[in-house]
Amino acid sequence: MKHAIRLTLPLAAALLLAGCGASPEERLTRAEQAYSAHNYSAARVDLASVIQEAPENARALELLARTYIDLADPVSAGSMLERLGRLGKLPADAGVLQGNVDLMLGHYDKALAAVDGDGSAQAYRVRALAHIGAGDTAKAAQAFAAGEKAPGSKGRLLADYASFQLDSGNEAEARRLAALAALEKPRPLNSYLTSADLLATDNNLDKALAVFEAGLKAYPESRAALLGKIRVLDALGKNEAVRPLVAKALADNPGDLDLAYFDARLDALAGKWRSVRDKLQPRESVLEQQPQANALYAKALLELGQGEQARARLTSQLLREPDNRQVRLLLGQAELALGDASDAVETLEPFAGLTDATNEELSSLAKAYKAAGRSDAAAMVQKAREAAGARIVSRLASADKAMRNKDWQTAIGDYETILRQTDGNNVLVLNNLAFAYSQVGAEAKALTFAERALKLAPDNASVMDTAGWLLHSTGKDRKRGLALIEQAARKAPDNATIAGHLAQVRKS
């Protein structure tokens, strides 16, 4: 009995095109080349067309099984392995392949059974991930450690082991393992992802971006690498670079909630709350699957005066995620907007016991206390002010140290935090943040902060110099840039940095 592959209409059409003018042998060779280049969708089309004509072609069935695994389609991959089993032509690593299928399906006991007796590094990776899925991190650690010493290709195991160590707080060990994983040729996809995550953890966002881009170049269909690149660009404030990436990816994958979130977030950053609501509203029934999108949608509802709808959505989310501070804050703010001060106090009160509570969290709690007529409202306001002041002093010291050490990403993180916890009008912070962003190549964002500082302190020589230099280096307005630097030089004739900038600008 022959088993036909069930095809979607677009794939069926692609198969008709794939079969035109090429023999099965040519299509199989083409599929192998596409697979080696990690173009899995192209490989799938050619392989499926080959199998339509030759249902017992074991070489095509095996490669299609591997392709489906890389496309995260465990059901189709399992079907290919079953057919190979009936033909008696399973590959030597069939247990590992089946283990990966079972992992994706959440069948952790079956995954362990599939690799039973296999001593390869890839089998230990399956064991480790199965134990993680089952919630047994101790056994996962044992499997990872054994896998590092096992024979065979181990790049994927080492990368996953590095992520496991990072999640466990062992950053030094995570870096060691990630460096080993990166040495494997060809470099596995999860090695790029893990290395980039480590760099992002260290606030080396520019380097993390480069690694994600390298991962996308090697694995052009990787959703994880694409989302990683988008997240880093978003963190760097490069919204104009994010927009076309999201638009293209969302056009190809209209049901992707992560992409929908970033699409709506771009509008949120511009204060376009009606657009945020309109983009996310058609996905209301599935937004709970993406917590950030759900919270953003609730925020849009709140901004548009739909407090009851926002409260219902946020209440449900907070029950699922009681440690989500963003959701707790939004819910408290929604309750305050609706006049339910006592509920707002109950929601926001956990912030009072947090040593790292933000100014916004404590200020919202103070407002709730006052609205509820609490006698200790004034004390909470004072506590909020004192806590905010202490944090700002600490952050400024950290940022200043980072600037001296040329640790630009740490400085950026500290200064951004200070702006969020204040009114955002500290000239020194804005000017230093502009300089730090310029040092990581984010000159457009740097100029935005420089202009804000200049508006607040138009006669400050250092501020004029920073803005002038960025206007010149970005090419946005070199004439104005020169004028600003000339003014700065007249105000601070002994400043060597300003004099150097003036000489370079005049020379160019």
From TrEMBL:
Official protein name in the record: TPR repeat-containing protein
Keywords associated with the record: Repeat, Signal, TPR repeat
Highest taxon in the source lineage: Bacteria
Gene3D superfamilies to which the protein is assigned, alphabetical: Tetratricopeptide repeat domain (1.25.40.10)
Organism taxonomic ancestry: Bacteria, Pseudomonadati, Pseudomonadota, Alphaproteobacteria, Sphingomonadales
TPR repeats by residue range: 427-460
Pfam families attached to this UniProt entry: TPR_16, TPR_19, TPR_8
UniProt signal peptide: 1-22
